[in-house]
Amino acid sequence: MAFAFATYARTIYDPLASYPEYSQRALAAAAVVALTVINILGVKEGKWTQNLLTTVKALGLLAIVVVAVVAPRVASSAAVETVGKLPLSLALIFVLFTYGGWNEMAYVAAEVKDSRRNIVRALVLGAAVVTVLYLLVNGAFLYTLGYAGLATSKAVARDAISTAFPNIGGRLISALVCISALGAVSGLIFTGSRISYALGAEHRAFRLVGKWHARTGTPVSALLLQGAIAIGLIVILGSFINTLLYTAAPVYTFYLATSLAVIVLRFKEPHVERPYRVTGYPFTTILFCAVCAFLIYSAVSYAWNQMPKSLCLLEGVLLAGMVIYCLTDVRDLVRRKGSEKI
């Protein structure tokens, strides 16, 4: 999403568009740095920033729908290919990215009031609202630009609104898209840092990121580490598409592992109370696992054919993390057993 911000930011101010390609990476990194600093300052600062960006985002999307529908349609006689450059499986990754973050609420469960009720409500309502907005916005784009226009546009929202307001409409919508992207980045920074914090709190080897700053009420070390990793990925991968496709496999790997854990734990610990019910279990869980496995295969196959060295580097980092985690987990287990004997 930081790359999405950078892409549209370059269309607002003309001189930025003429800068070398690395300027896009610089803008994306600057967004990560700025929002990380805001979240470090305090939970209240991060919350107000998130609420403001989300409100503007929602209003902006609705404005896009209204303007795109009333704008004159773009006539195009260009034929539309039935088969695109990417296979359907990879196209599905981009579509599902629209709903990315649907599970983030679970990461901050410890900070949610009445979490047993509110987390489920947030997950269901959040997915429903995003689905409706997604259909409305894309329907408006399709109505205005047509299939050929959508296929050739590099900034769909800007091009759709420019048909109604050629001079300033594109810049206004680009600004709204930038705000929308920043809202997503801010939310991911907030929730993602809680994962690193939980890891540090549970495992002594990672205790550096398991510290909670008493004055700001935020996991400062976890936020700094997360920001550094994000900037590293921005520098290495260099574009929105590369970032999405190369991180899709690790993301869906963890989705798959989490879903399999639900099945395994229900077999191993059948009598443990379950605070959350899984509707349609085990069929829905198995279906979700199958979809994740399919998307992992698709992402890895594409990445291997396009940039095998980068893929090996990223997967190597993932495997190294798993090995380190297993080793530290065993060490912590040995330490706990030793303490019990004493």
Q: What does this protein look like?
A:
The chain has 342 residues and is mainly α. The chain has 2 domains: 1-238, Up-down Bundle (Amino acid/polyamine transporter I), CATH 1.20.1740; 239-342, no CATH class. The protein is built from 12 helices and no strands. The longest helix has 38 residues, at 115-152. It is globular. The relative contact order is 0.12. The mean pLDDT is 78.
CATH architecture type of the largest domain:
Up-down Bundle
Quantity of strands, as a count: 0
What level of helicity do the residues show? over 70%
Q: What is the percentage of strand-forming residues? A: under 5%
| Strand/helix succession | HHHHHHHHHHHH
Q: Unreliable segments (pLDDT under 50, ≥5 consecutive)? A: none
Question: What's the gist of this structure?
Answer:
This protein is mostly helical. It is 75% helix and 0% strand.
Main features:
single chain; mainly alpha; Amino acid/polyamine transporter I; 12 helices; 75% helix; 0% strand
Sequence-ordered SSE layout with sheet pairings:
Blueprint: H1 2-12, H2 14-17, H3 22-41, H4 43-70, H5 88-97, H6 115-152, H7 156-162, H8 169-202, H9 220-237, H10 240-268, H11 283-306, H12 308-341
Helix pairs in contact: 1-3, 1-8, 3-4, 3-8, 3-9, 4-6, 4-8, 5-11, 6-7, 7-8, 8-9, 10-11, 11-12
